[in-house]
Amino acid sequence: MAKMYYSEEHEWVRVEDDGAAVIGITDYAQQQLGDVVFVDLPDEGKEVEKGDEVAVVESVKAASEVYAAVSGAVTEVNEALADTPNLVNESPEGEGWFFKLTLSDQSELEALMDEAAYANFVKGLD
Amino acid sequence: MVLSDKDLLKTPLHDLHVELGARMVPFAGYAMPVQYPAGIMTEHRHCRASAALFDVSHMGQVRVTGEQAQAGLEALMPIDLSTLPEAQQRYALLTSDSGGILDDLMVARLSDGFMLVVNASRKHEDMAHLKRGLNKGTQAELLEEQALLALQGPKAATVLSRLSPGIEKLPFMHLADVEIAGFRCTASRSGYSGEDGYEISVANADAETLARRLLEEEEVAAAGLGARDSLRLEAGLCLYGNDIDETTTPVEAGLVWAVQKSRRTSGGFPGDKVILEQIEKGAERKRVGFKVQGRAPVREGAALEDKDGNTIGRITSGGFGPSVEMPIAMGYVPAEMTAPGTELVARVRNKPVALEVVKLPFRAHNYYRG
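The joint structure predicted for all components is written out below.
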């Protein structure tokens, strides 16, 4: 069973059964951003450190940086976002994923929240 | 000074915005709706297809009266008010001694003076400037008790004619004192979207009821500052503080049409020497529009480079155009690079993005021409 983790910066990390981590932004984040018109994704093969600026999401109004919630090497990016960036709005935790990573430090996952904890965290923001 | 949200001013429609689920943001000292739940893209397209209601009560409505009002205003702006009939308005610029732009505004002639509508971010500076610059016996009064609504879009006239029969015949850039749904208003056929529409000045006390009444019409949806910005960008209209400011002249900004012919010989306005010389000889740089290749928006502040990598200008406004369905931008480039088709490069997050100079506006204006 894949497991979901969430960061305070409104990213999700889904760890698949084979250990690959899929990264995206949460439903709350896409609602805050509004209509996404472009996603600047990292290059495949890029090594990212937790906290690095790894992607940029452009809405009609503004550009927002996405910081890596975990460290690792980028193995794949979501090519579909190039032509249909609004997948991020329509399916933020599904088809609107950003990129896949090979995790370099599994223990970083422990600092992230599970779904219930993130839901509580978001509640506290309003 | 950092203002906390609770120090922000509220327009008379504040409670309505919150009720409609708007995301409120600070803008020029006011809490303003940047978007409603529909989102900027939908609000923008609704305005182009139907009618959108904007709260622009943060803007300054300034009444200028007194026997010398006309001469006083003409001493501060390159405008010829002798050719402005009563109940008509015109776009105008307050210029600085160095030829820059202190604000852009609308000037209307009333039966007993003039009405200016100025930018929210500039209204206090404008008031101080007017009070300094206008002669004794001329009064400039900021109307704090009036709200301003903008109803914009191809169906605005149809909608408004139901609540104020006859208003559909008001010509472009004309004003009328009218009753709309029973409320006393001054409406002008104008706006900032590139579409047909009206700006409606109404007493603060009546503003919310009137706005609710307008929103009851099936063609009308609320739109926020986000859509207002993307609409005006597609229409190629300047945003003060971005595309024009004290460092840009009317000639550089491509706003020479706002400098009336009679003032081009006589001068007699702040910065006349610089501006008239530029009108005669041309400016070294000009504001142009850009079509952006690819999908990455190019935003204000991005540096512009020529083919050899020399920085030659910068972007002053940019974003995604929901109706033209691509990223668009405006900025300043040297005069020799203003021809449509000129290829340049913008730096976005240190990556090159190809741009091409295009004629403004990006989308043809759809004003009412009677």
